[in-house]
Amino acid sequence: MMSMNRSLISLIAFITVFQIAVSQTANSSVTLRNSLLNDSVTFTVAKDGSGNFTSIQAAINAVPDYRKKRTVILIKNGTYVEKIIVPESKQLLTIIGEDAEKTIISYGDWAQKKTILGEDTGTSGSATFYVFAKDFCAVNITFKNSAGPIGQAVAAHVSADRSVFFHCRFLGFQDTLYTYAENSRQYYKNCYIEGTTDFIFGWSTAVFDQCEIHSLADSYITAASTSQNSEFGYLFYRCKLTAAPTVTKVYLGRPWRIYAKTVFRECELGNHILPEGWHNWGKAEAEKTSFYAEYLNSGSGAGTSQRVKWAHQLYKIQAERWTVEHVLKGDDGWNPQLNGINQTIKSK
Questions:
Q1: Catalytic residues, which ones?
Q2: In which element (H, E) is residue 319 found?
Q3: What is the pLDDT of residues 191-219, one digit of tens each?
Q4: Which of 147, 219, 292, 325 could form a disulfide with 197 if both were Cys (CB 3.0 to 4.6 A apart)?
């Protein structure tokens, strides 16, 4: 009998927030999985034809527009070579993979690739997966851009407000994860994100909670383009920053736009992080307008004595603003950690 990993069961804990009850267990059987998800799964996608669809995009297209209750699509293990769009009309959608390392969405576009009209695809056009619908949730999925180290090549382009990714993997090189929309709040829990240059970038307000951030080259991790009117940008909370063995010179971030905001809080920084920590991208004005800060980090890359003078070490009273709840609450009080999610969802 096929078993189901902890992360798939963990999904139920998150979906409680979105009207689907759930709990975390380990090594649960298909029977238990079906009993938990029987009233929740709307469609199943399987490459072998055993589900409702063999294509993820076809399943998404079949979801009724502007549905008022959550739709759940269960995706069986396999590599799905698709360029996928979740349009704005497919709100309240959850996609669940069987296993994060075996349920893979992959495509190979890149920014300089020529379209049929002879134009560059562009960074925004290079993504494997696009999300525009509010209240989107992904669990146990790998999002991959398979183009290789060929310049900008996005794995996931996320514009959706109140979007959540739990135990997902984002694989690419330059520009792996594009947090695109200015008014989008995004929450990444127990995720793995890898890349070379600016591999987490964009305008959105995003929290990375207990994620692994893995550098594949000497370069820059983040390139926030936070707008002047946004109170928050990126918060990395209790994350682990790792690197390939040959990587020794990595900056925490540089400002794509001059009001970039990025905070690393209680993270473990490897020795690949440069002592200066941050780079101004040749924009002297950004040293006055950006907000780059750290708080209670650990590890061999966490020393602050040689950090650039325009970066900040937060005081406790400042750190009270930079919490998961406060950063994401917005005007509607959104909190993806409600109902004890911190206690019920564990690290993998």
A1: 175, 198
A2: helix 316-319
A3: 999 999 999 999 999 999 999 999 999 99
A4: 219
